[in-house]
Structures are given as structure tokens and as C-alpha cells.
Amino acid sequence: MKNIVVRLEENKIDVAKLYNEFYTSVSDSTGTILIHHGKAKYPGKYKPNYTKIKLTIIDDEALNKINEYAHKIFDRFDLNKLFVVHQVGVIEKNDTILFLAAEAKDRSSAFDAIRDILEFIKAETLIKLEEL
């Protein structure tokens, strides 16, 4: 059974709680756990002086597409566990936007898996980031 969690969160993401959820059990074959904690940096990516960020689902199938892609990544890199949690709604600067975690047999697989799913999400074809 694949150990994959994919969520779009409307409530503020609690990174410590997510990591604890992720780390409840670890496979004996795990050599690397890699975490990506994406946050709303300031000055902004598009607008240097923003006050809030709005993360809007722009594809009704966003959750399904991210879940499908996560399953492909899980298989491609032979992962033991994968978490993909993305914030939606309006957030403040420095708030968490994205939490990715991969449990892999080796660090190359973990880094490549996280980088791949991150680039898929950052393409902004499913969730739009707007600095207000």
C-alpha cells in the first residue's frame, strides 16, 4: 500500500504537526527523509511590497491532478512515503505555502522526487499565487 498524503489546506499549515504526522513510522529501508517547507517570502516574487498572498485553485481537478502526479513520483523514485500539503486561501507574509516530505531509500531519490513535484506545483497551472 502506498503511503501518500495529498491535501489542499484552507486552515493555516502547522509544519511541526505535519512533520510529526509524517514521522509516525519510518521504514527500515529509509536512508533519507527530505522536507521542503515553502513559505511566503518578502519582498514578493511578483510584487515586492505585498500585504497578503491569495492562493486560488484555478483548476477544479487540482487536488486530483496533484494526487495523480504524487503517485507517479512515488513510483518513479521508489519512495517509502510522500506528503504534499498546499495552502489555499489568503495568507500573510512568512506563512507556509507548501509542505513536501519524501521518505526514500537514498538521498538522490528523495531530492529528485521533491524537486520534481515542486516544479509541477510551481508551474501555477493548478493553483495561482497572487500577491496583494
Give your account of this protein's structure.
The chain is an alpha+beta fold and about 130 residues long. The chain has one domain (about 5-130): Aldehyde Oxidoreductase, domain 3. About 30% of the residues lie in helices and about 35% in strands. The protein contains 3 helices and 7 strands. The chain has helices at about 15-20, 60-75, 105-120, and strands at about 5-10, 30-40, 50-55, 80-85, 90, 95-105, 125-130. It has a 4-stranded mixed beta sheet with strand order 1-4-6-2, sandwiched between helices. Strands 5-3-7 form a 3-stranded antiparallel beta sheet, with no helix packed on it. α2 runs antiparallel to α3. The radius of gyration is 15 Å and the shape is globular. The N and C termini lie far apart (about 40 Å). The mean pLDDT is about 95. Pathway: Cofactor biosynthesis; molybdopterin biosynthesis. Its EC number is 2.8.1.12.
